[in-house]
Design brief:
Keywords: Cell membrane, Membrane, Transmembrane, Transmembrane helix, Transport. This is ABC transporter permease. Its main location: membrane. One of its GO terms (cellular component) is plasma membrane. The protein is mostly helical. Among the domains are: 33-84, no CATH class; 104-260, Orthogonal Bundle (MetI-like fold). Helix content is 82%, strand content 1%. The protein contains 14 helices and 2 strands. Strands 1-2 form a two-stranded antiparallel ribbon. Helix 7 crosses helix 9 (176-204). The longest helix is centred in the last third of the chain and has 39 residues, at 219-257.
Amino acid sequence: MSYLRFLARRAVFAVLSVYAVVTVTFLVVNSVVLLPMKRQVALAEYGGASEEQLEEIRQGYIQARNLDVPLHERYVGWLADVATLDWGYSFAYRRPVIAVLDGRVQATLGYVIPGVALAVVLGVALGLFAALAKDSGFDWAVRVAVYALFGVPVFMFVIYVRYLGETSGAVPALGRHAIATAAVAVSLLAGQVRFARASALEQTGRSFVKMLRAKGADRLRLARHVLRNAAIPIVSLSMTELLAVLVLNIYIIEEVVGIQGLADASLRAIRASDTALVIWTTMVLVVIGIVGNFLQDVLYGSLDPRIRAESEAG
């Protein structure tokens, strides 16, 4: 039951974090919501509008956005809209925001998740075996490759792969999602290898590794025991890198590759000053980040029972 209580606490904390972000977003939106009206009034005044016309513009703007309703009632309505997915109307797409995002979030996660999974599995394996074969030819080859990958910008990799796939007869034309998945994996792989190797090296000098070597354990068995002890910092890096991809690399990848995902909608909203869509694309990224942190807590508790015990004691 202790682990279930641990998960329940983390889930409640995640939900509270979501509503804290929703509250902050509400306050920010309400602090700037009158700026477009002031611009409209200034333009109308510059055009020679009368005071009655200016007041009509002000009242029309306020009533259209329910700004004449008390702030606390608008806040309650905002929370209800979040829960019922009534996220307003996108003027850039001329559709409700939720209809715009439907399918785009899935399209983005459809290449981010497999790309991260590929980078984690391959990066951890390479880093782990490089640490166990420290200063060998394999270790040096992995380290050189990591330094090379750190110098490759994501957009250059995407452009090169697309060009190679479309023009070379030896390489079949690649689909957009395959290219995007590869771009995510490449952007994360170097960091995963480097951190996995460093975490594994911290374990290779410990007594249990020396004992296993003395018993003649093969490299695969050594790797399994070392990975078990180095798993927590590796998981931490994986989640951190996932969030970094969501807030940065997806914008580059979707713009270059041409995937109609979450970042593509966000960029179009920014260019069109589509406030509702900008807010909710950002909110989706924030919520995904909170969910990612929740999963990280779950994995921590699963990998290290001491963390669960400390959480229960707290």
